[in-house]
Write a structure and sequence with these properties.
heterodimer; A: 319 residues; alpha/beta; Rossmann fold; 2 domains; 8-stranded mixed beta sheet; 9 helices; B: 294 residues; mainly alpha; MetI-like fold; 12 helices
């Protein structure tokens, strides 16, 4: 067990809207060790992307980090100046996006994306060197080096995602956040991109935060899984344990609502109801109105995140 | 990355569209017709000293108010000046005024539009308010008021026209920037550590250029009409400069006596030049409008 690379402590993020304040991330704490992969799963609007953005301190307007600490390599990211933070983005923490089709500037060649990135973080780098480094990197990502002179529209979605991965990895960042990196791709390309990410993870000892709503991807890629519901982490633990014996009823529901190729006879069971309105979240445990195992304390008291069987779970069943 | 290179790329983006003009239907033809008219008139104005048969400001070159004839194809005015020569050389001021006003608009409107709308919030709201209040005035009236304050002269005319048209640039750029800044490649570059200047210059500006080109061309047409209007009401230049606007002023008085040729031909030129720029501008904006692209 190594030193944690990323340590998030009591992080809360709020969006102020016309209808009131929405606590998109509420008191989230987690640790991530160097070289491991954290999978963040949850429904749309559960706060998993917001959590990812807040590590880069780029929570979209009108969002705001209201409290907490994000320790990265021993310094609190929330205390850095804007300029220091800008230098960290791309160089030490970088992000891979959901939609590769629109993530590259259509009027710039691929090489210019890389030149700009290198120049931003290492002003002394010469153009030729930046280009040759980028070409080598692209080669290792499965894109022929000579295509570096092409424009984004000459690439397919999968190839653009490879370019995005290249941009995210170009400066060997300590932490990469991948926000639904394969959601916009078709299944075959998705498999290729995941294979690539897996290989890079092993080769480069990447520390990865993988944000997705696809349970299958998490099972394949992640070392530890965090399940988010209504802005809170409700279960966090090693991937294998979580899939074999989910503790929280919501985690169970998530697993049962996904197709399972090993047990095709089991029919998928959706979780009834829909995610809560975050302006007025339910009292007590936020999952209780949809929970199949709800009992007396659930609507009254918010369950604490406690340790059970090598993992953390927030449910009154385990009090 | 060097500046020339990044702007060279803007042309790379524009060129394939220009070369396929004939295949672009009505928009393509409008651009071809517009640019032909404009360039012919520009060549005519530049070569006026060699083309015009008489000195355009010399008086008594012919009989007073003679109707179009073989010797004076477009007739003469009440000072005996040759109308053909005046029509050929009278566009110089129009061109100068419109070019200077478009340059001023580009230098002022584009940076303000880019910066304020990218920044958003208070800056954007205040700037929009100011621009919209200017926009609310009728253009010619505002231009006349400003020109009257500044006094006559090419640069002053251009400035007063520029004030009127800066808001159009601002509005077009603002609408584009508001869309582009939400696109994920702008977010992506920020995630990778790009600063505001890089995002504005390399990401947003090149994508706004097509719309700016379209507005600028329409601005040319409007500037010509406004310049003619300013000279017409007497806020232009001295009488010693040949100018279509002046000829309109005199022609109006002389029209009553039946001398239609003094006002008709300069007026036609103003209309033709404005038409050329309008065709060009409308064609370009249609061509660059992504919603119409097949």
């Amino acid at each position: 067990m190594g030193q944690p690379l990323l340590k998030i402590d009591g992080l809360s993020v709020e969006y102020s809207t016309m209808r009131g304040r929405i606590r998109a991330v509420s008191d989230v704490s987690l640790n991530l060790e160097k070289g491991s992969t954290l999978g963040l799963v949850g429904e749309s609007g559960s706060g998993k992307s917001t959590l990812g953005f807040s590590i880069l301190r780029l929570v979209p307007q009108p969002g705001r980090i209201v409290s907490g600490e994000i320790d990265f390599e021993g310094t609190n990211l929330l205390e850095h100046s804007q300029e220091d933070m800008r230098k960290i983005r791309g160089a030490q923490v970088s992000m891979i996006f959901q939609d590769p089709m629109t993530s590259l500037n259509p009027v710039k060649r691929i090489r210019d994306h890389f030149i700009e990135l290198y120049k931003t973080h290492e002003p002394s780098v010469r153009k030729e060197e930046a280009v040759s480094r980028a070409a080598k990197l692209l080669d290792s990502l499965g894109i022929a080096g000579e295509r570096i002179d092409d424009y984004p529209h000459q690439f397919s979605g999968g190839m653009r995602q490879r370019v995005m991965i290249g941009l995210a990895l170009a400066l060997n960042p300590g932490l990469v956040i991948a926000d639904e990196p394969t959601t916009a791709l078709d299944v075959i390309v998705e498999a290729q991109i995941l294979e690539l990410l897996k290989r890079l993870k092993d080769e480069r000892q990447l520390t990865l935060i993988l944000i997705t709503h696809n349970i299958g991807i998490v099972a394949e890629m992640a070392d530890i899984v965090g399940v988010m519901y209504a802005g809170q982490i409700i279960e966090l633990g090693p991937t294998e344990d979580m899939f074999e014996d989910p503790l929280h009823p919501y985690t169970k529901g998530l697993l049962e609502s996904a197709p399972n190729i090993e047990h095709p006879e089991r029919s998928m069971r959706p979780i009834p109801g829909s995610p809560p309105d975050m302006v007025t979240p339910p009292s007590g445990c936020r999952f209780h109105p949809r929970c199949p195992r709800v009992f007396e304390p659930c609507p009254l008291k918010e369950p604490a995140l406690i340790e059970r069987k090598r993992r953390l779970v927030a449910c009154h069943l385990y009090d | 990355m060097s500046e020339e290179e990044s702007y060279g790329r803007i042309f790379v983006q524009l060129l394939p569209r220009v070369s396929g003009l004939r295949k672009r239907g009505l928009a393509g033809w409008a651009i071809l017709a517009g640019s032909t008219i404009v360039s012919l008139l520009a060549i005519m104005t530049i070569t006026a000293p060699w083309l015009s048969p008489h000195n355009p400001i010399a008086i008594n070159v012919g009989p007073l108010l003679s109707p179009p004839s073989n010797q004076f194809p477009l007739g003469t005015n009440h000072l005996g000046q040759d109308m053909l020569s005046r029509v050929i050389s009278g566009g110089a001021i129009m061109f100068q005024v419109s070019i200077i006003s478009v340059i001023v608009c580009l230098l002022v409107g584009v940076p303000i539009g880019l910066f304020a709308s990218f920044k958003g919030g208070f800056t954007d709201k205040t700037t929009s308010l100011v621009m919209d209040s200017i926009y609310a005035f009728p253009g010619l009236v505002l231009a006349i008021a400003i020109a009257a304050m500044l006094g006559p002269g090419v640069v002053n005319m251009a400035l007063s026209i520029a004030v009127v048209y800066v808001p159009s640039y601002f509005r077009i750029i603002r609408s584009q920037v508001l869309t582009i800044k939400e696109l994920s490649y702008v977010d992506a570059s920020r995630m990778l550590g790009a600063n505001t200047k890089t995002i504005l210059v390399d990401y947003i500006f090149p994508n706004v250029v097509p719309s700016i080109v379209a507005v600028a061309t329409i601005n040319f047409a409007d500037a010509i009409l406004t310049a003619a209007g300013l000279t017409f009401v007497g806020l232009g230049l001295s009488v010693s400069t040949p100018d279509w606007g002046w000829d309109l002023t005199y022609g109006r008085q002389l029209l009553a006596s039946g001398a239609w040729w003094v006002i008709a031909f300069p007026g036609l030129m103003v209309v033709l030049l404005a038409l050329g720029f309008t065709l060009l501008g409308e064609g370009l904006s249609e061509l660059f409008n992504p919603r119409l692209e097949k």
